[in-house]
Amino acid sequence: MSILFVDIENFLYYDGHKGGGNLNERIKNVREYFGLTQEEFGKKIGTARNTIANYENGNRTPGKSIILSICREFGVNEDWLLYGTGGPDNMLIPEDMAYIHNIGKLGNEKNEFKKFYLNAMMNLSDDFWDYLYEEFKKFSDKKGE
Hints:
mainly alpha, elongated
């Protein structure tokens, strides 16, 4: 039997599974998973180091825009971040969803070359993709020698 406790004000969640914890612990888990300092993590989501420290210590609760920034920037599952849904194995969105997520970020991309390049690449024939794959494998094999 699972116990469910949700405190919306503090975003606390526990459902009887390991890794439930609370929002501040999960924010820290994301930052540490990607090997970032509080300052580096804050820059990626547009906030200051001390704000990240306050989130992680439970002194402040991030608003929806920060939650969405963390999820967008790091490919984090929003339900997991907010509520611990699915435990720690559910932190990141699945790989196929990550592709969709990354393509969606192009809409806000300011670098026109990135948009041009990726659109051009997506229009290549499968034969050319196979050729590129084989060439990249050669490079990867040489790097391991």
